[in-house]
Amino acid sequence: MAVIRSVIIGVGAYLPEKVLTNKALSKKVDTSDKWITERTGIKKRHIAADNEYTSTLAIAAARQALIRSAIDPSDIDLVILATSTPDQTFPATAVTVQAELGIQRGAAAFDIQAVCSGFVYAMTVADAMLRAGPFRRALVIGAETFSRILDWEDRTTCVLFGDGAGAVVLEAQPQHGTGDDRGVLSAHIRADGRYRDSLYVDGGPSTTQTVGHLRMNGREVFRHAVGKISGIIEETLVDAGLAPDEIDWFVPHQANSRILDGTAKKAGVPMDRVVVTVDIHGNTSAASIPLALNVAVEDGRIKEGDLVLLEAMGGGFTWGACLVRW
Ligand code: UT7
């Protein structure tokens, strides 16, 4: 039976030029390359220049995704930008992207705030809107400048995060309604607000009227991560009628290599099928999945027809998974 699927027709990314290595960080705070590498797998991260904002990064990533999808910005009728570090409290950073890229004036544009799960949330919402109509082509972006909300004196958090942006263009296309279809085959998102104090920012417009800094109980996040992610992966695969050994590429949120290893093992995906970028990007929150997708498309690993599994878990707690045939 013919169905509409949201097919990824282009991907793009942008990383700020400035690189901060573990060695350079260990001169700022009481840490070491050894500790960061052993506990997280991170070796370096990118940091936005003073004149680069989340919108700057998002626009660069989106521009590349649009060029690669060979469509005109005026063909985009939906912009969803996942971020926890917007340019301003409002308007949404998505409308800046819309204006700067010359996207349709009548398009819908809004931000999604689900911290590290933001890109999976944005994909899920975009997919639902494309399948329901009348939207035809969506620009889905994950963009962050976490360097702006880090407490650079807190070694337990400042070593973990980096800045960057990634984007995909989704197009509503008729498919056959089987597991061989191209596009989003299954997407699931969840939240459990009882854990909202495990990873949060201690400021905001309604409470402190300040931007605030990121605070995290790392052990608590770690304790929940593998279980929550494994559960949602299983649900997503069952819903699509597909098995773990059919996954060509597993592209997880890049928070910590120990979480990545544990999740892949539990999901039954061998490590040579896992796209790992946490070593070179650090944790870029909502940007990490599209940044990793871009690396694996550029180096030729992800090809048309491949089954790609995305997943993330982060502040809230929020978590989710999305199964896409490229
Ligand atoms: O995107 C989702 C968001 N976040 C995550 O996924 C993070 C999940 N959590 C984690 O990745 C890990 O919990 C961390 C990497 C944050 C921490 O690793 P851990 O193995 O849980 O370490 P810990 O917090 O138990 O700390 C162990 C020790 C402590 O010292 P004591 O109390 O044992 O003397 C910390 O003070 O390591 C110390 N420590 C550090 N030492 C050097 C904490 N941060 C650092 C540091 N450098 N940067």
List the defining traits of the structure above.
four-stranded mixed beta sheet; globular; 2 domains; Peroxisomal Thiolase, Chain A, domain 1; 27% strand; binds oxa(dethia)-CoA; five-stranded mixed beta sheet; 32% helix; 10 helices; 326 residues; alpha/beta
Overview of this protein structure:
- It is a single chain.
- This protein has helices spanning 22-25, 33-40, 54-69, 93-101, 118-132, 155-158, 218-240, 257-267, 278-281, 288-298, and strands at residues 3-14, 18-21, 44-47, 78-82, 108-112, 137-145, 163-175, 183-191, 199-201, 214-216, 249-252, 307-314, 318-325.
- The longest helix has 23 residues, at 218-240.
- The chain starts with a strand and ends with a strand.
- The model has no long low-confidence stretch (mean pLDDT 97).
- α3 packs across α4 and α7 runs parallel beside α8 (257-267).
- It folds into 2 domains: 3-175, Thiolase/Chalcone synthase (Peroxisomal Thiolase, Chain A, domain 1, 3-Layer(aba) Sandwich), CATH 3.40.47.10; 183-325, Peroxisomal Thiolase, Chain A, domain 1, CATH 3.40.47.10.
- By secondary structure, the protein is an alpha/beta fold.
- It has 10 helices and 13 strands.
- The structure holds oxa(dethia)-CoA.
- Oxa(dethia)-CoA is lined by residues 31, 35, 39-40, 116, 155-156, 159, 199, 218-219, 221-222, 225, 255-256, 259, 283, 314.
- Oxa(dethia)-CoA (UT7) is lined by residues 31, 35, 39-40, 116, 155-156, 159, 199, 218-219, 221-222, 225, 255-256, 259, 283, 314.
